[in-house]
Here is the input.
Amino acid sequence: MEYGILKNNSYNKNFILLKTTIFVFIFSLCFDSFAKAPPESFADLSDKVSPAVVNIATSVAVKDSPPREIPNFPPGSPFEEFFKDFNERGPSRRPSTALGSGFIISDDGLIVTNNHVIEGAEEISVFLPDDREFIAEIIGRDTKTDLAVLKVDTKGEKLPFVDFGDSDILRVGDWVLAVGNPFGLGGTVTAGIVSARGREIGQGQYDDFIQTDASINRGNSGGPLFNMSGKVIGVNTAIFSQSGGSVGIGFAISSNLANSVVKQLVEFGRTRRGWLGVYIQDVTEEIAASLDFNETRGALVSSVRPDSPAEAAKIKAGDIVLSFDGKRIEKMKELPRIVAETEVGSKVNVEVWREGKIKQLTVVLGELEVAENSMSATEQEPQSTVEKISSLGITVAPMSTEVATEFKIDKNIGNVVIIDVEENGPAFIKDIRPGTIIKRADRQDVESVNDVLDALESVNKRGSKALLLLLSDGKRERFVAINIKDKD
Here is the structure.
């Protein structure tokens, strides 16, 4: 009997445990579904952030046509005096007004907008949602990222403001809210989702755009894109449209990029970007194979600027940059942005692939803006017979005054020139044309035509299918892996 009671109790406990488990499972599913459900309304979020979003109007004085020549009238004629007075008043000036958006980032009146919103403006007016108007001054602007910071004199009054959020944690499919001044209508709120991350739209080397289907139109430029916590995760900048109206493809500068630029503009009145001093290109499958690298990621260094931080750190042409300051490099385009966002003068670890193994280097970053002002127009690097190389589909010759004159190239930038390319051959397919200088072959500097032949022989002995060349057109350098054609 006692055994039976114990057995029943054990059964009851197991049954209760099973029911509890099922209940918890169903509840978790419901909670997860509820947590991911779309919000019933954006009203609370709109009320929270809209007071910090401003409308921006700019005016530019536009000159009319120049003074007309005075007709010939008899001396003392009243018409003579009339035309003289008219021309002495000079050409009239009409205000040309453009409209855009912006958002306040500090209670003392710092405002972020797009540079193109205020470009060329002689006067900038900022309108708050309560219709108060302020005249703004430009604190700093950056054409490369199309950002600008303005300041209004609040006379001690505290203004509502919003903060930047972390765009790196943003996910495709997240809800976002855009607030701005489309077509000059005033405060307008639209909602959508993040359609894509890391978009490149050809605006520059620092492209890092968030794509959204929240309705963005002309006049939204410079306005904020918010996450559901009310943080700015993007600055609305551009749309894709054939009609000029919204088609559900808008682009916002990511907040992490914008925040970095804004901080520099506020502190220095200009940007101070990190500078490494390398030219880079994508790592293709053929180039990776030529360098014994089994991935197609990173940034391939095609050349190093003299007297640059990269040269001081012993970075070499042919290195593949795998990480910078602990940040993994997947695509070549990521490196310039990461370098630019790194503090000038900081000591940074750089991980590169060289000669079949990973090498750790340390670089002290310079300042890009200073380097740009002092860079020379061209790169200068240290400095037999004509030879047809059928397996590559090229004919090479030593550099000479005649060769340099024929192909209109500087004879001091290399020692070996491709003077003929076989049509539809391996080199032709890689868009190599006569007049191209060979700087390196199979990772070795090329001083003579024989160096190219030796490199090809070495590659053939290893059984490789392509020869890696560093080529120059006199302006830029690039690595190309040319497939080796089998002998007929």
Summary: The longest helix spans residues 2-36. The chain is about 25% helix and 35% strand. Confidence is low (pLDDT under 50) at residues 1-7, 31-35, 376-384.
